[in-house]
Amino acid sequence: MPLTPGVRLGPYEILAPLGAGGMGEVYRARDTRLDRTVAIKILPHHLSEKPAAKERFEREARAISSLSHPNICHLYDVGSQDGVGYLVMEYLEGETLAERLIRGPLPLEQVLRYGIEICEGLEKAHRTGVVHRDLKPGNIMLTKAGARLMDFGLAKPAVLPLGSDSSSLKTKSQPLTAEGTLVGTFQYMSPEQVEGKEVGGQSDLFSLGAVLYEMVTGRRAFEGKSQLSVASAILEKEPEPIPTVKPMTPPALDHAIRTCLAKDPEKRWQTGRDLAHALEWIAAGGSQAVASAARARGGRTRERLLAAGLIVTAAVALALGYLQVTRAPTEERVTRSYIKPMTGSSFILSDAAGFALSPDGRRLAFIASTPDGKSAVWVRPIDSLRAEPLAGTNGATYPFWSPDGRFVGFFAGAKLKKIDLSGGPPFTLCDASDGRGGTWNREGEILFTPSVNAALYRVSAGGGQATPVTALDSSRNELSHRWPQFLPDGRHFLYLAGSVFTSMVNPTNSIRLGSLDSKGSDLLFYSHAGALYASGQILFLRQDTLMARPFDPERRKLTGDAVPIADPVPEVAIFSRGLFSASENGLLAYIEGTSSADRELVWYDRRGKQVGAVPGADAYACPRISPDGKKLLFYLDASGYDIWSYDMARGVKTPQTFGSSSTQSNVYAVWSPDGRRIAYGSYRDGKHALYQKASDGSSGEELLLEGEARYKFPTDWSPDGKVLAYQEGKPGGWAIWMIPMDGERKPYLFHESQFSEREAAFSPDGKWLAFCSNESGEYKVYVAPNSGSGGRWQVSPGGGSSPRWRRDGQEILYLSSDNKIMAAEVSAHASSFEVGSIRTLFETRPYGPFGRFDVTADGQQFIVPFEAGRPTTAITLVVNWPADLKR
Asked: Residue 821: is its pLDDT beyond 70?
């Protein structure tokens, strides 16, 4: 009996039927846990009792579960309830190719695009050891995101019962597979399927050839009045030449499809990738001259047209073969140009470090402000003067491309997301609390860094559970793996390993070579910031010079010395990322400039009006106001890391630490309650420690906590001066610790949690602690008793960071995830806490991952390390940059 709306299968609520076939029924349903629409395919009870049907259903589950690719319908879950087995799959909106073909043949551009996408899906399946065996228009869904393959694992080899009455084998308009009949649809079967032989990937390519033939002509390649006559045509006949049916069809496409339809599997294309390359060549315009010539000869006879087409087809095939082996030398020109932000917008480069060329070099994705002051992903075609923001990408960072250029991946709201350039909202793939770069291979896998303290993880481009790929090595002082990039084989990748606080002059960070198939890695060379591979070279920064070093991706070996190709090119030091990108076809993009930052320390009132500023621009980060409100602490992060103070009355800047060197960095300072001391984090010889010293410089520094290979940053000092709160890195996030400032100074954990917690701030009476936690999936502001036991109360409805208390304890100020300074009214009781109204004060763009602003004790003025964006900055584009290496 069909399922009715409202029925539940586990956590899935049935909404409406979608269709039915001989092997199952498909319903639209809602996943009540994730509140997303899914498709559920069930094996009815009357079939689940039949071993053959049940085995086939389970085979489909196994087949789909091994596949993860943008052009294959994704399997989310498998279950059974009350004798009903079910598969939970991605819900695809669109129409099947069979439904589309009812309206006639497809335009050439769509034939090529969908054909390439189907090839990519088949290539993934075949490499995974899965043969579809029932490829037909009804099993191909056309969505806004492209073609998607469905119904894997249902077909199996079958022998045509030649002794059967042909009247019992008449074809059906929508054939169903049922027990005792042939599996699949005869019009798309390969000869070996019809003969009952073992089938491989070439069988699917034959079926694809039949599908492509129908997409071009609107006719089936093999027709007949019964299945027996169709089978005979498949075994013995050739379909009518495509130019006979559609004279304007490029001969190269006719040749590609005929190669698919060869009777002998050895004479067909051997892989989906081979066919995709041929279709890509045609789509790129390789046959335009042929099509134009055909149109010009419209008055000639069909026979002469066909003859000419065959001659050109042969010539194209020979030319393709020759070009694979050799290319005539040509004079290569290097050209340079500039891209500027749109009017009313500005590039956001430091925090978001944000631009990336598409793999084919046709488009540039970058982070820039929108007219309303928000940040978003923008995309600009290289050959256009206009760029457009992508709706739904507010707050995005670190954009990267899918291999086919159809999607842009990015981080926002503590999630890894992707967005389809053809339209639609962003799609959340998985959690990523503080992402640091991603890369996407042709197998539909994304490699990314989910947080500051994490190794590399992998996740399907369709979303799901992320799993670790690399492991941090403490013996190499590795605190982070970030900025991954797949090499052309899609299995090996480059990444940066180390800590952001190493020297840019004599770096100890390393560029390493990893593999999806191994936990191990190989050292390539040392560099402070990330690197990328393009055009046979690894590009990286040596201080402010962009270097290129020859690299053989097949042997995975460096093959020469590095040479400079652009100077100066800046680095965002606190993120260890250079401001450059490159495509696979010789296009290079970079920012011209040095790594000396141009941020300002700006004072704002509660309305967001600027009321003052620290004179001069510099690499300001993490400002802290002294308890008496007369001085500021901050650190500089341009080429080294040291802590400075600023006397607001005298207008004098004074260095507080002097250790910035190749082996030492000092960051994130906080004041003692009386303002007489400062505590700070220090990175020395590969280890992080905590120190304190007199704020007036009257005494030297004192070690508070021995160093180890984990980030450690102080965040606040208790009002009574007895405890220092600090955050310590842990795999995938942060934990809040306390260290007593007297006695043995034995640290203790504030709260044991599986989540990431950071940025602790004491209430003015010292009884409560405001902090950030990602227990909801993104960082939000919470309050809990300082004792670490008892309840906790959520302060920020949405994302929040950098909590600060007003002196009277009646208000918590914080930064929202969309860069607004928020004010939350709060009141504390003996054992409970209340959060009142929350309102927006103003919008700004503070710099840094932590401690991004501070507020005066009365809550009336805010100091922000402000990066206004670079409205006059241009991104430099270099076309054919590898030619300079040859000269």
From this structure: yes
List the beta bridge partners of residue 486.
493
Strands of 427-431's sheet, edge to edge? 397-401, 407-412, 415-420, 427-431
How many helices (H) and strands (E) the chain has is answered by: 13, 60
**486 close to 509: Cβ distance less than 8 angstroms:** no
**Nearest-angstrom CA–CA distance, 505 and 488:** 31
Q: What is the 3-state secondary structure (H, E, C) of 620-686?
A: EEEEEECCCCCEEEEEECCCCCEEEEEECCCCEEEECCCCCCCCEEEEEEEECCCCCEEEEEEEECC
> At 205, which helix (H) or strand (E)?
helix 201-217
Among 394, 389, 440, 391, residue whose Cα is nearest residue 413: 394
β-bridge mates for residue 654, sequence order: 645
Distance CA 832, CA 829 (A): 5
Q: What is the average pLDDT score of the chain?
A: 83
Mean pLDDT in residue range 302-322: 39
> For 827, which DSSP code?
E
Is 121 within 8 Å of 196 (Cβ atoms)? no
pLDDT of residue 353: 60
DSSP reduced 3-state for 105: coil
What SS3 state is found at 610? strand
Q: What is the pLDDT of residue 847?
A: 79
**Can you tell me the distance from the alpha carbon of 223 to that of 237, in angstroms, rounded to the nearest whole number?**
10
Model confidence pLDDT, tens digit, residues 106-150: 999 899 999 999 999 999 888 877 888 889 998 899 988 899 998
Spatial contact of 212 and 167, defined as CB atoms under 8 Å apart: no
Instruction: For residue 134, indicate whether it is catalytic.
Output: yes
Closest among 814, 716, 802 to 761, alpha carbons compared: 716
Whether 530 and 482 have beta carbons less than 8 Å apart is answered as: yes
Q: How far apart are CA 381 and CA 404, in angstroms?
A: 15
User: Which is catalytic among the residues 134, 151, 637, 716?
Assistant: 134
Contact present, 789 and 767 (Cβ < 8 Å):
no
**DSSP state string for 539-559:** EEEETTEEEEEEEETTTTEE-
Q: Phi and psi (nearest 5°) for 101?
A: -70, -15
Name the residue with tokens 């500023």.
Answer: 613
SS3 call for 17? strand
pLDDT digits (tens, 9 = 90+) for 393-451: 988 899 999 999 999 999 987 899 999 998 888 999 998 888 999 999 999 999 999 98
Give CA torsion, residues 92, 97, 98, 100, to 10 deg: 100
Model pTM? Answer: 0.57
Joined together, the tokens standing for residue 341 give 């932000």
Average pLDDT in the 14-35 region?
80
Gap between the Cα atoms of 735 and 507, Å rounded: 27
Helix (H) or strand (E) holding 460: strand 457-460
